Amino acid sequence: MSMSRRTFLASLSATALALSVSACSSDDSDSGDGVTKVRFGYIADYNGASLLAIADERGLWKKHGLSASYKTFVNGPIQIQALGSGDLDYGYIGPGAIWLPASGKARIIAVNTLTYADRVIAKPGIRSMADLKGKKVGVPEGTSGEMILNLALQKAGMTMDDIKKVAMDAPTIVSAFSSGQIDGAGINYPLIDTIKQKVPGLVEVASTEDIGGSFPTAFVTGPKADAATDAKVVKVLQEANDWRAAHPEEAVALTAKLLKVPQDKVTADASHVKALTTAELAAKTKDGTVATWLDGMTDFFVRTGQLKKAPAADTYYAGAAYTKAAS
User: What is d(CA 120, CA 149) in angstroms, rounded to the nearest whole number?
Assistant: First the structure.
């Protein structure tokens, strides 16, 4: 890991709480015997929020002896820093942050979805990755925005040295791109829809859909296991997952309610997501498919230098516990 990346991650630890805000709580005042309180982080999009919205609305936390409070974060790495500092119990990450649990900073307790929402966007007039050579490109480091930018550069036979990389968080990218301060960005939907309102002619020069592969999102906890609580949380996520699969329109509505955004925006966001049932995820865990997804990600992160070597998936994904909970 380079000095700049170490400095970046250290700064995240100091800013994790400052950048997070309370969103809602589920029976948070309930402190009765046998009820375990958990603090859950998420990113304010369909991937990150839908299961939490369902669990809250359907009373799944209480059903499993839990009480959950939620906090929103701008990305996955900040949540993992909050897990490490003890300010958060569970969180959500996109594929671009898989390198962090793979490096031992967290554990994946459940795979959530496959997402294809990441893009490299550019201002009007730029039509390819080659056209971004020497241009300012905003990227939230350690996230799926950096992931898609790296993938697109590799496919184009380029490296980060061919562009002027500007590290900034996702909300800053939205404003910087909209105001013309940067020429391109590694960013995702639904934030791209927000940018399009101000720059309708923006160009998508690369996408995870075009590059191919599987890009899992996941729920994580700290490196040290609390098996009893983890098992309860996984059951909540699995039941919410199956309700989402059976009631896609209602899931969108509940997510929109939690995020306090129009339902049509969440519908558009959900169109970039591939959801699987708990039975499918358990089966794909048992047959090694999930490990293949994760191996594909860690091999990529070795190429980018974010990991020194690719660890076995079962060292950071609690797949056996997930399949046991699903049985």
Answer: 6
Q: Using one digit for the tens of pLDDT, what is the confidence trace for 210-240? A: 998 999 999 999 998 899 999 999 999 999 9
Q: Indicate the pTM of the whole model.
A: 0.88
User: Are the beta carbons of 73 and 20 closer than 8 angstroms?
Assistant: yes
Which residues, in sequence order, are CB contacts of 58 under 8 Å at separation 6+? 239, 240, 243
The two structure tokens encoding residue 177: 């791109």
CA end-to-end distance (rounded Å), the chain: 40
